[in-house]
Every structure is written in structure tokens, then in C-alpha cells.
Specification:
alpha+beta, Adenine-n6-DNA-methyltransferase TaqI, Chain A, domain 2, elongated
């Protein structure tokens, strides 16, 4: 393959020095910040703390043109962050700043740290709150090509960066396109499921001639089995399932299924509990041929409408507006089945429901399908980037004691 031949020529016989990260960069912690401080001081500057994405935006900044960070504590410990321009670096994010005298390109170091993610993770401790000690991080050995020839070293680094940034840019462009398509999808979904006054009848979800809600059973994660009867746990509805499904991620035993609350083909399975308002009442239409067990903190909606039509309706802003007044709880947010039954849904003729579903299915496939939509393309480009990153940055290591 021509690309591989070019890479092998680029790195053929390259001289490499493995240096401790602490010799190349300074590592320091950002400033104290929390959600309350951000809420009290809104502004244009991103707050980079314990996650890859900004915690929020604030009216103060403590970092400029120092883009590389590494999460020091919390669930995202060891993650590499990149933020350009001015921003506020929080106290759960290490600044990784190249020393002025070191001939290392900042984007080269960024790609390198991404490639060494597993080695950084191995330095983290997970007893109690996950943490990464700065002293351990500084001992991480990184490869510097042609250490005795800074100009040649920077030339090699620049070529590696050029290749890898091309893949990164393509992935970013596809991600931006996906975001735009999702906005377009949301717009058309809401428009298709909004009807003029008198155009269709709006009925309560719990109306006798429309449907009824059935509370889920006592299914817990410990009840999962390798094979048996399919099941849906409420937590999987926001992490695994989309608008509809015909296979389940997990199973329960035949014996457990006999006493479980079960969804029939065509029913909706709805998460009635979540940690945030957006996820509560997320629904998946079950289209499989067999009955499946459903956990508590979820409910089953049995109805005489098109299943996908109802599931798409649950995603609309019109449904969200009706749901919000019924949300209760503080840390855990809930909507009970009795209140869900009060929500109004437009009920056009079945032929019109099917027409709307056929249009929305096309958008859904494009924006959500791993098999044949934009997410699949993004996943492939990301794998391609990782392949070439590993090829370009996997320099041979000198064993201890070798000269």
C-alpha cells in the first residue's frame, strides 16, 4: 500500500530518545472551580476540568495558548484534553506545558499522549476517587525523534502531525455534519408531529381507546443471564437503545421471566427514572417477536397506535413540554405512570402515522445507525486515525541497560 510505504520511508532508521515527560514539560494544576462558581459568573470562556468537554462557560480565564491537559481526578482520570485560545483550567486538570528550550511540537505531543493513553491509565489509582499523581505522570517516557538534530526532529514531528491532523479534521467535519443533520432531523420530527388545531384529535395516552401503562417488575442487573428470555433494564434505554429495537442486549432465565412483567411486540418500554430531566421518559418501541422482561423504574405502554409513531412522539418538544411539570425528585428524577397517562398525543389515521414513520425512519438511520449512517462513517475514520497514529508513533523502545 502506497501510504504504508511512505510511512515506512518517513520513519526508516529514525534515531529516537525516550525522555521522561517531566524533562520535556511542566505539569501544574489549574484553579479551583465548581458548577456554582460557573453559574454565578457566566461568560465566554470554556471551563476545562474533569471531562473532555467543557464543564461550562465563565467570565474569567487563567490559561492562554496552552492547549494540552490531562484529567487528574474523577471518572475521566487520565483523559487527554485539547482547548485552544483562552479558557479556565480547573483544579482537576493538569496543564502539560512544553518547556521553552525543548524542540517539541505541541500537536505532536498531543497525538503522542493520545497514543499512550493506556500507559497513562496504568499510572492512575482507582482506590476511592480515581486519581493521577503528577510525580508518576512526569516519569512517563516519551519518544523524541533525532534528539541531536532539532531541525530534523521538528521536520519529522511536523510531517507526523500533518498526516494525523488530516484524519482529525475529516472526523471533525463528519461530526459537524452529523450535528447539523440531527438538528434537521429534530426540526422535521417536531414539524411532522405538530398538527394544526382541528386537524387531528389529541387524546390522553391513557385514554381507554388509546392505551394503558403497566409498571415494570423487580428485574435487576444481577438477574442477567447469558441466554434465555430477552429483557430491558431501564438504564439501558438511555445508554444502548434508540427509537426502536427487535433484539435485546441482555437476557434473564426462563424461570425468572415467568414471574416478570413483560412487554409484547409493539409495546413501548419507558424509563421513568433518571439522573436528569432529558433522559427521564426516554422510550424504545419493542418490535421483536417474543415477549421480554422489563425492570422496575420502567413502565410498559400497551396501545393501539403505530409503535414507532409513539416512540418518535416521545422525542418531540411537544411531549417534553407536557412531561416537565410531572417530574419529581431532586437527585433522582421521576415521572410516574399515572401522570404519563395524562399527556396528550395527536392521533391521525393509521395510514398517516405510517407515512410519518417512513419519513422519520430515513432520518433516524442517517443520524443514529452504526450500520449505514454518519456514525458508522465517523467510527471508521476514527479507527483509520488510530491505525496511522499507532503506526507513526510506535517507536522502538530501548531496553533498560542498553546503550
Amino acid at each position: 500500500m502506497n501510504g504504508n510505504h511512505f510511512m515506512s520511508k518517513l520513519l526508516d532508521g529514525v534515531d529516537v530518545e525516550w525522555k521522561p515527560l517531566g524533562d520535556v514539560v511542566t505539569v501544574k494544576t489549574g484553579g479551583a472551580v465548581n458548577k456554582q462558581k460557573i453559574s454565578d459568573n457566566p461568560g465566554p470562556y470554556a471551563v476545562i476540568n474533569s471531562g473532555r468537554e467543557p464543564l461550562g462557560f465563565i467570565n474569567d480565564w487563567n490559561t492562554e495558548n496552552d492547549p494540552i491537559g490531562i484529567t487528574s481526578r474523577g471518572a475521566g482520570v487520565g483523559s487527554i484534553t485539547w482547548q485552544e485560545g483562552r479558557y479556565f483550567r480547573g483544579n482537576l486538570n493538569y496543564a502539560v506545558t512544553i518547556k521553552p528550550e525543548e524542540k517539541v511540537q505541541v500537536r505532536y505531543l498531543y497525538h503522542l499522549l493520545l497514543q499512550m493513553q493506556s500507559e497513562i491509565q496504568a499510572l492512575c489509582t482507582f482506590d476511592g476517587i480515581p486519581a493521577l499523581n503528577a510525580g508518576n505522570l512526569k516519569e512517563l517516557k516519551i519518544p523524541i525523534p533525532y534528539p541531536e538534530n532539532p531541525d530534523r526532529s521538528l521536520q519529522i514531528q511536523a510531517e507526523i502531525v500533518r498526516i494525523l491532523d488530516a484524519f482529525t479534521k475529516l472526523t471533525a467535519e463528519l461530526t459537524a455534519e452529523l450535528s447539523a443533520r440531527k438538528k434537521q432531523y429534530n426540526y422535521y420530527r417536531d414539524k411532522l408531529l405538530s398538527f394544526e388545531d382541528g386537524e387531528v384529535e389529541w387524546k390522553r395516552l391513557g385514554a381507554e381507546d388509546i392505551g394503558k401503562f403497566i409498571r415494570g417488575g423487580g428485574l435487576q442487573k444481577k438477574d442477567f443471564t447469558e441466554t434465555g428470555v430477552g429483557c430491558i433494564h431501564y438504564g439501558q434505554i438511555y445508554t444502548h437503545y434508540g427509537t426502536y429495537a427487535n433484539t435485546t442486549k441482555t437476557c434473564v432465565s426462563e424461570a425468572f421471566a415467568q414471574k416478570a412483567k413483560k412487554a409484547h411486540s409493539g409495546d413501548l418500554v419507558i424509563a421513568t427514572t433518571s439522573e436528569n430531566d432529558d433522559d427521564v421518559c426516554k422510550a424504545v418501541a419493542w418490535l421483536g417477536s417474543e415477549d421480554i422482561a422489563v425492570s422496575s423504574d420502567a413502565c410498559i405502554y400497551r396501545h393501539n397506535l403505530n409503535p414507532k409513531y409513539v416512540s418518535y412522539f416521545f422525542q418531540t418538544e411537544h411531549f417534553q413540554k407536557q412531561k416537565r411539570p410531572f417530574i419529581t425528585g431532586t437527585k433522582v428524577r421521576r415521572v410516574n405512570a399515572d401522570n404519563l397517562a395524562k399527556i396528550l398525543i395527536p392521533v391521525p389515521r393509521m395510514q398517516e402515522q405510517e407515512r410519518i414513520v417512513s419519513i422519520l425512519d430515513k432520518f433516524d438511520a442517517l443520524t443514529n445507525s452504526i450500520a449505514d449512517g454518519l456514525p458508522r462513517e465517523i467510527k471508521l475514520r476514527q479507527k483509520q486515525y488510530e491505525y496511522y497514529r499507532d503506526m507513526l508513533l510506535s517507536f522502538p523502545k530501548v531496553e533498560e541497560g542498553d546503550t
